[in-house]
Amino acid sequence: MGKGKKYKWSHSSSGGYYVGYKVILAIDALTFEVLGFEIFEGSPNDAKILEKFVEKLCNSRKVRMGDFIMCDRGFTSKINYHILISRFLLVPMIFARKNTDIKRILSTLTPLISIWDGKKYLLDIWKKIVKEFVEILEIWQVFRELRSNIELFFNVAKNCVRLNKVHQFTKESVGKKIIRTFHLTSELIGTSKLFNIGVRELAEM
Question: What pTM, to 2 d.p., does this model score?
């Protein structure tokens, strides 16, 4: 499934709060490459901030049409499934809450408006995205371990790169601190593999 594509993860974590600011982070779930992050004042609901964040990732070409986007339950909402599939042509792997009505989500999916504006070739791509989404629903549990990678990333950042020692008080200063921390975390994970140190082992140091 998804041959030749990156599995990517957008996620906000309880570890992502810093003195009145909330951080949402996207990484490549296989390589731990940082794809992007966004800082929000206060604690906005995850389900309401996903669209603009994904738009930013698409505009920077960190995320491309057909990629798989993995999110935790905080991002679960019918509109987010629709946005990822029908606006961005991405395969959503949003881990559903118990009361999420997936059948209703599928029954209300509609193709992009641009399909009827001289871009009918997008209809086949949209159908393929929907098909892959349905296939994922049948093997949801397979991705549990991959899903845990974001937590491992945050744990490495906290335990090894002092992410839990952020004392900045402005959005700009928090951003400078976090971009350095995330970059160092990604580099540290990559380097540790050369010494046969697993990410989970590194996160527990």
Answer: 0.81
